[in-house]
Design a protein that fits this description.
The chain has helices at 37-52, 94-103, 118-126, 142-145, 152-161, 163-172, 178-184, 196-208, 212-244, 247-257; strands at 5-9, 13-18, 21-26, 58-63, 68-70, 83-84, 90-91, 108-112, 115-117, 129-133, 137-139, 176-177, 189-191. It is α/β, with parallel strands linked by helices. The strands form 3 sheets. It has a 7-stranded mixed sheet, sandwiched between helices. A 4-stranded mixed sheet has the order 5-9-11-12. The longest helix has 33 residues, at 212-244. The chain starts with a strand and ends in a 14-residue tail after the last helix. It binds o-succinylbenzoyl-N-coenzyme A (S0N).
Length: 271
Amino acid sequence: MTQWQTIKTYSEILFERQDQIAKITINRPQVRNAFTPDTIQEMIEAFNYCRDDSSIGIIILTGQGDLAFCSGGDQNVRGNGGYVGKDHIARLNVLDLQHLIRIIPKPVIAMVRGWSVGGGNILQLVCDLTIAADNAKFMQTGPKVGSFDAGYGSAYLARVIGHKRAKEVWFLCHPYTAQEAYQMGWVNKVVPLADVEQETLAWCHEILQKSPTALRFIKAAMNADTDGLAGLQQIAGDSTMLFYESPEAKEGRDAYLQKRQPDFNKFPKFP
Ligand code: S0N
C-alpha cells in the first residue's frame, strides 16, 4: 500500500505527498465531496504550494472515499450571488481554482472514483489527464438546479468531447458511465476501482521520467490555443523564464547594473 505523508493539515481537504507526487483530496465525503468556498480556498493554497515547491513534479486531484470525486458546489451554502464561506462573502472562487489548475506549470491528474458532478466535474475536466475507476459517473446538473458554467465547463467541454456531445451533456443532465466518458475522450483511462490509485501513480512515475520543461511548454501551448491572450501570456512567461537563464539576458541585466552599454553583438542570431 502506498505511503502518503501529510504536507499540511486542513479542515476540508487532505494535502499529502509521496516523493515528487503531491495529492490533494477533497475531504467532505458526507456530502459526496461537495465544495464550499473554504474548500476551494484550501485547494488554492495547496496548489500554490505545489507550484512553488520545485521538488514537486506532478499533482493528483481526487475525492475522499469510493463514492464521489466531487459533487460540485455545496448547495447548503449556496447564497444569492455565489457560495458563502466562513467570511460570509458570496463568491464563485472555484473559477480561480480552475484557472490555477490550467496555469500551474506541472501536470495535474484527476483520479476519479464514483460521482463527478457539476462544478466538480469541471474540475476534473480542467485537469490535464483523468484516470477513472470503473465505478465513476460523470454528470452536469446545472440546468436542473438553477446554475451553469458557461466558461470552461461549456466551451472547453465542447472542445474536449465535441459540440453535439457537450450540448447533450448540459441539455439532458444525464449521468455517463466511465466507459461512455472514455469513448467520448472525456477521460484517459478506465481501470477497476481497486487499481485506480496504483494506475494513477504509474502514470505519475512515467511522466516524472520526462523533461519538466518540455512538459511545461506542451501544457502551456495546448492551453494557449484555448485560452487566447491569457494563454499566450502563460507561454510568454515561460519563455521569459528560460531567457532569463541565458547569457544574452544576463548581459542586459549586468550592463544596466554596471552602468555601461550592453554588448549584444556577441550573441548568435540563430536561423
Ligand atoms: C452526487 C449525487 C449524484 C450522488 O447521489 P447519491 O450517491 O445517491 O448520494 P445522495 O444521497 O444524493 O447524497 C448523499 C448526501 O450528500 C449530499 N450532497 C450530495 N451532493 C451535494 C451537493 N452538491 N451539495 C450539498 N449536499 C450534497 C446529499 O444531500 C446527501 O445528504 P443527506 O444524506 O444529508 O441527505 C447526488 O447527491 C447529487 O445529484 N447531488 C447534487 C449535485 C449537484 O447538483 N451539484 C451542484 C451543481 N452545481 C455546481 O456544482 C455549481 C458549480 C459552481 O460553483 C459554478 C461556478 C462557476 C460558474 C458556475 C457555477 C455553477 O453554478 O454551475
